[in-house]
């Protein structure tokens, strides 16, 4: 085979065989195929797309580029959850304890944040002593005994995806559904789970800006999962504004605790209960979604769910007292209020601008090697649909840096205020199964 022939084949919208796709992925991972040829191939995929079989073969080839995780020693049906990324998305911190309460083993492998989207591992590391690197033996034992454990992703998992994503980022080929779907699903397949629930975000703070795009991505990933022997469900959820009221690592841990105590915001509580209930049904704890949802809500009301979070923190070396006293979490020195310049209804909030603002305040990374400030972030005082008077506080910036003018300007401009009250936001747009 020659790479140039395969580029030309895809350029003319011809389907590639499993062997041809494997030649490209393994060759690029090993360094036999140069960046310039892989860039041309990615652009051809961007414009010409791939059929279902090609996307499944692409996913499997990425899985086979590195190690895979064997979870066969864990009892029960292992259910994993993945979010396509957003702003204020602290769902894993809520969902893991909920599923563990009903006996669903959650062996979670998560990543760090990059750019305007946060990472679950960073959030957990804002808790004093919490270890996100534990031995394989402890990981398996914790899931068998407590039904939950969470660790950072192995660097040897899907190395092809890491290399390809870095190239997509600089060649304008990030927003390609075949490439997004294979990237996400390869990590989930390699992680060894039996079933997958996908949280596909849509809106200004997500990869997919329209519901139609998000549904296509969701259907593509569900088809990949099913074709590779994994029961898969996708939940399309809203990211047209930040989820909940807190953005930033320690801030989001604090808010996750609030959700599990029963006084979280309606949008994030609804999304968390929806995803956790779908996971519980796939894992066999309930026969139908409605029963699962009712029971999940009861776990919050009874206090059992928040006690499970405390247990997760304890078994991974963290200080469980943060659950009862969130002030033990890192605190920023500076708090800057962003005021409304006019009166009216909040019609929209650009989630990506808020996410970038939080990054500029120190809560995120511009590059993978950047350090982060766990205490930095943004508290959303107003949400879409709220009335504001001139001079009301829209949000509060938390930081330890001296010059925040760029973040202040971005946060101010993220809010669009008009005379008319907008239609209510739909938190869960649809379910694909």
List the helices and strands and how they pair.
Elements: H1 3-11, H2 18-30, H3 35-48, H4 52-63, E1 79-83, H5 91-101, E2 106-110, H6 120-125, H7 136-146, E3 148-152, H8 159-171, H9 177-190, E4 195-202, H10 211-227, E5 231-238, E6 246-247, H11 249-261, H12 266-282, H13 289-302, H14 304-315, E7 334-339, E8 344-349, H15 351-363, E9 377-380, E10 387-388, E11 393-399, H16 405-414, E12 415-418, E13 428-432
Parallel strand pairs: 1-4, 2-3, 4-5
Antiparallel strand pairs: 5-13, 6-9, 7-11, 8-10, 8-12, 9-11
Keywords:
transferase, globular, Pyrimidine Nucleoside Phosphorylase, Chain A, domain 2, 433 residues, Aldehyde Oxidoreductase, domain 3, alpha/beta, four-stranded mixed sheet, Nuc_phospho_transferase
Task: Describe the structure in your own words.
This protein is an alpha/beta fold and 433 residues long. The chain has three domains: 3-49, Transferase, Pyrimidine Nucleoside Phosphorylase, Chain C (Transferase, Pyrimidine Nucleoside Phosphorylase, Chain A, domain 3); 79-323, Nucleoside phosphorylase/phosphoribosyltransferase catalytic domain (Pyrimidine Nucleoside Phosphorylase, Chain A, domain 2); 330-418, Pyrimidine nucleoside phosphorylase-like, C-terminal domain (Aldehyde Oxidoreductase, domain 3), CATH 3.90.1170.30. It has helices at residues 3-11, 18-30, 35-48, 52-63, 91-101, 120-125, 136-146, 159-171, 177-190, 211-227, 249-261, 266-282, 289-302, 304-315, 351-363, 405-414; strands spanning 79-83, 106-110, 148-152, 195-202, 231-238, 246-247, 334-339, 344-349, 377-380, 387-388, 393-399, 415-418, 428-432. A four-stranded mixed β-sheet has the order 1-4-5-13, with helices on both faces. A four-stranded antiparallel β-sheet has the order 6-9-11-7, with helices on both faces. Strand 4, helix 10 (211-227) and strand 5 form a beta-alpha-beta unit. Helix 1 packs parallel to helix 3, helix 5 (91-101) crosses helix 12 (266-282) and helix 12 packs across helix 13. The longest helix has 17 residues, at 211-227. The protein is globular and about 65 Å long. The model has no long low-confidence stretch (mean pLDDT 93).
């Amino acid at each position: 085979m020659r790479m140039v022939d395969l580029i030309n084949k895809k350029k003319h919208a011809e389907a590639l065989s499993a062997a041809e796709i494997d030649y490209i992925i393994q060759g690029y991972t090993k360094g036999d195929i140069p960046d310039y040829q892989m860039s041309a191939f990615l652009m051809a995929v961007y414009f010409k797309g791939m059929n279902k079989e090609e996307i499944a073969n692409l996913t499997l080839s990425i899985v086979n580029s590195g190690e895979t995780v064997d979870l066969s020693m864990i009892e029960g049906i292992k259910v994993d959850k993945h979010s396509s990324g957003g702003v204020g998305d602290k769902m894993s911190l809520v969902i893991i304890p909920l599923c563990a309460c009903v006996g669903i083993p959650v062996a979670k492998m998560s990543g760090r944040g990059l750019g305007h989207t946060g990472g679950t591992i960073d959030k957990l590391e804002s808790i004093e002593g919490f270890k996100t690197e534990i031995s394989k033996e402890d990981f398996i034992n914790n899931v068998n005994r407590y039904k939950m454990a969470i660790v950072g992703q192995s660097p040897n998992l899907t190395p092809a995806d890491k290399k390809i994503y870095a190239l997509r980022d600089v060649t304008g080929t990030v927003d390609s559904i075949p490439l997004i779907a294979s990237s996400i699903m390869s990590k989930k397949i390699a992680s060894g789970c039996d079933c997958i629930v996908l949280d596909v975000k849509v809106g200004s703070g997500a990869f997919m800006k329209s519901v139609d795009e998000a549904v296509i991505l969701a259907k593509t990933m569900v088809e990949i999962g099913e074709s590779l022997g994994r029961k898969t469900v996708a939940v399309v959820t809203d990211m047209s504004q930040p989820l909940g009221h807190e953005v930033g690592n320690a801030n989001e841990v604090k808010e996750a605790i609030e959700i599990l105590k029963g006084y979280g915001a309606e949008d994030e509580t609804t999304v968390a209960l929806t995803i956790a209930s779908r996971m519980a049904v796939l894992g066999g704890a309930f026969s139908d979604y409605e029963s699962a949802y009712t029971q999940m809500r009861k776990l919050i009301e009874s206090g059992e769910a928040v006690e499970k979070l405390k247990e997760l923190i304890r078994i991974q070396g963290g200080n469980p007292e943060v659950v009862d006293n969130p002030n033990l979490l890192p605190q920023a020195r500076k708090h800057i209020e962003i005021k409304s310049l006019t009166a009216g209804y909040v019609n929209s909030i650009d989630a990506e601008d808020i996410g970038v603002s939080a990054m500029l305040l120190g809560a995120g990374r511009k590059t993978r090697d950047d350090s982060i400030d766990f205490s930095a972030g943004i508290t959303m005082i107003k949400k879409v649909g709220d009335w504001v008077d001139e001079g009301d506080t829209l949000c509060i910036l938390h930081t330890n840096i001296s010059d925040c003018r760029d973040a202040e300007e971005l946060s101010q401009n993220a809010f669009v205020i008009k005379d008319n009250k907008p239609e209510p936001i739909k938190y869960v747009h649809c379910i694909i199964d």
